[in-house]
Amino acid sequence: xxxxxxxxxLVTGIANNRSxxxxxxxxxxxxxxxxxxxxxxxxxxxxxxxxxELVEPLQPSxxxxxxxxNDEQVEAAFATVREKWGRLDVLIHCLAFAxxxxxxxxxxxxxxEGFNLALDxxxxxxxxxxxxxxxxxxxxxxxxxxxxxGGVRVVPxxxxxxxxxxxxxxxVRYLAAELGPQNIxxxxxxxxxxxxxxxxxxxxxxxxxHHVEEVAPLRRTVTQTEVGNAAAFLCSDLSTxxxxxxxxxxxxxxxxxx
Length: 258
Known about the structure:
Blueprint: E1 8-11, H1 20-30, E2 34-39, H2 46-55, E3 62-65, H3 71-84, E4 90-93, H4 112-133, E5 141-147, H5 160-179, E6 184-191, H6 205-215, H7 224-235, E7 246-249
Parallel strand pairs: 1-2, 1-4, 2-3, 4-5, 5-6, 6-7
C-alpha cells in the first residue's frame, strides 16, 4: 500500500551509513521514489566522494552540493531540481549543527555566535529549504524534518541544540499552516537516540541510549530503518490528512515520567 512510485524526493543530511537520513533514503527508494541527494561540500571533496559511493545503489538521478549557509548554493540546488525534474514531491530535512563546546557545560555560557550558528543551520534551514521547494511542489508535497525530545525537555549535554529543535518544531507548525492551502504537508519525526555522526558530539550519548533501553516501553531504542519507515509513511498518500505534527519514533520513551 505504501507506494512512492513517480514521486521526486530530495534528501538532505546524509553523511555516512549511520545517518538517519541514510535510513530514510533507503526506505524512500524501497517504496519507489526517484531520489535526489544533497551533500555538504568540502575543499578536498572527501564528503562528496563518501556520500556518492554510499548512495550509488539507490541510483539517485540528482546529486548536488547544498550548504545551507550559502544562499547561492541552495538556489543552485533547487534550480537543478527544476531543470532536471520540473517538479518536487518530497523534501527530507536532516540538517543540524552546533559547536561541540556549546553542547556541554553551563547553558548560559553559550556565545552569541554559537547560539546563532545552531539556530541558523538546525532551524532556519528548514524555512529556507521550504521557501525554495514551495514553487516546485506544484502538485502538493510532503516535507519531513528530524527533531528530538531535547527540544521540549531538558536533556543533559544537549543545551543549545535543544533550543534549536524547539525552534524547528515551531517552524513545522507555521510552515504547515502557510503551505497547507497548496496541499503541502510539513511534519517532524522525533527519533530516539541513535549512534550517528551528529549524536557523537553529544556527551554521554551511549548512556542516553542505555537509559532508553531500560526505560522505554519497548525496552530498546530505535533504528535508522524504523525512522525511515515512518518518514516514508509521512511522504506517502497514506498520510494525506496529517500535517504540522511531531511523530515520536522512540520506542515509546516520550510517554514515560520516570
